[in-house]
Amino acid sequence: MTTDNSRNIALQCTDIVKTYNSGETEVKALQGISLDVYENELLMLVGPSGCGKTTFVSVITALLGFDSGRCIVLGHDFSAMSDAEKTAFRGKEIGFVFQAFNLIPALTAAENTALPLTIFGTNKTTAFSRSYKMLKAVDLESKEHVLPGNLSGGQQQKVAIARALVHTPRLVICDEPTSSLDHKSGQMVMELLKKLTKEHGVTMIVVTHDERVYKYADRIAQMEDGRIIKVEKNR
Hints:
Elements: E1 9-22, E2 25-38, E3 42-46, H1 53-60, E4 68-73, E5 76-77, H2 83-93, E6 94-97, H3 109-119, H4 124-137, H5 153-165, E7 171-175, H6 183-200, E8 203-207, E9 219-224, E10 227-233
Parallel strand pairs: 3-8, 3-9, 6-7, 7-8
Antiparallel strand pairs: 1-2, 1-4, 4-5, 9-10
Helix pairs in contact: 3-4, 3-5, 4-5, 5-6
């Protein structure tokens, strides 16, 4: 595993095991995964379908429990947290960017972006002020009042990125953020994610099958059969 003792660790997983039981069948989705992710880096998690990427991401975002091992994210040890504490932690510290955008069709770009703030009780004036600021950061200030259906795929993904960052999370998880986009739009989105990682000081984990975007990673973690088999610095 590639490590760098000069950098602060944002996420540290040690010997994580997760088993699913279906009747008499037992499937080990994660088989002793250990991984450190540094602050302010863009790490790509890659590997074939079914290798455990989704399960691992669910563990590190406290959406899914695990059988054994230790997971410390942004200084929080998940084994010592209640479900309510995990929910509050996700709402404050983690942003999500999805493959399918997951925008609400009836809400404008600004309203979609403000949603994480309004859900957690931020007053409307503050929520929309931060929403407009984030849309400007992703070059969509002219699209604030446009519905998702009138935006291109690339623009919709930009709104999804603005929404993921509007509450100033320290960790952002991107699940196949370019797979629904053409090559040009995908490159544009990755350039934006790379830029925002540095400018906003976030740690970003990108799950992807798209080899064309590997060049944007600081490091690449390769998964296979529930294990991380290799972590390399990008060249």
